[in-house]
Amino acid sequence: MRRCVVISAGEIRDYARARDLLREGDFFVFCDGGLAHADGLCVKPDLIVGDFDSCNSDVLLNWQDCCEVIQLPREKDDTDTLYAVKLAVERGFDDFLLLGSMGARFDHAFANVSILLYLDGLGKNAVLADDYSTMQVAGKNPLYIDDGCSYFSVLTIAGNVSGVSIKNAKYPLENARLNSDFQLGVSNEVLPGHTAEVSVEHGRVLVVVVA
User: Fold this and answer.
1) Closest C-alpha to 91, from 30, 7, 29, 22
2) 174-203 core/surface letters (b: 16 or more CB in 10 A; e: else)
3) What single-letter DSSP state applies at residue 34?
4) What whole-number distance in Å separates Cα of residue 105 and Cα of residue 87?
């Protein structure tokens, strides 16, 4: 199955970095104002979704005859991005990359990070990437981090967790408890020449890998 790449209206300044994350055969879903990133990413939409309150009408006009377009009501429970993700799940996608999900609106950014928890709960693979980092959810299935990154952080965003293990890192943990009111896992480092491993027995954590 092709990977689904969902592009939202947040910031993408380093288009070269974003393009490096793309794969041949990706299925591209642009959410509303995210359509402005199409030229910078050098890709064509396969699907456009949104209530179009933030999309330039001229940009939409350029693309609407080239692919499927789904217009949503402005008053709804799901954000445009979450709707797009749910639709992609319904259509059978198991692998996701979220781009343009971070930016000036913290509320939108936090909501988009929460989509990683939603997809992980469905057993889907999902990565959120911005200009500086990639983000994934880790639980009982270990998450591996190579030593090419600058830092990585293990954050509790879904309640307190236990049985946390971090191996091959400057600050290792074994069977630890992490609390939501104290982010102990900020700014760790992979030991040179090793691959770090993060796993959680009870609960889930957000792993942020800084390039």
Assistant:
1) 29
2) eebebeeeeebbeebebeeeeebbbbbeeb
3) G
4) 24
- Cβ proximity of 117 and 135 under 8 Å: no
pTM: 0.93
93-120 pLDDT, tens digit per residue, is 999 999 999 998 899 999 999 999 999 9
Nearest CA to 161 out of 114, 120, 204 is that of 204
Identify which of 16, 3, 83 has the alpha carbon closest to the alpha carbon of residue 51. 83
Q: Say whether 22 sits in a helix, a strand or coil.
A: coil
Render pLDDT for 41-59 as a digit per residue (tens, 0 to 9). 999 999 999 888 777 776 7
Token readout for 83 is: 């709707």
Report the b/e string of 35-62 with b at 16+ CB within 10 A.
bbbbebbebebbbbbbbbeebeeebbee
Quick check: 147 and 194 in contact, CB under 8 A? yes
User: Which tokens is 72 given?
Assistant: 């949503």
Handedness of CA 181, 184, 186, 190 (dihedral sign): negative
What amino acid occupies position 140?
K
At residue 61 the predicted structure's pLDDT band, cuts being 50, 70 and 90, is low
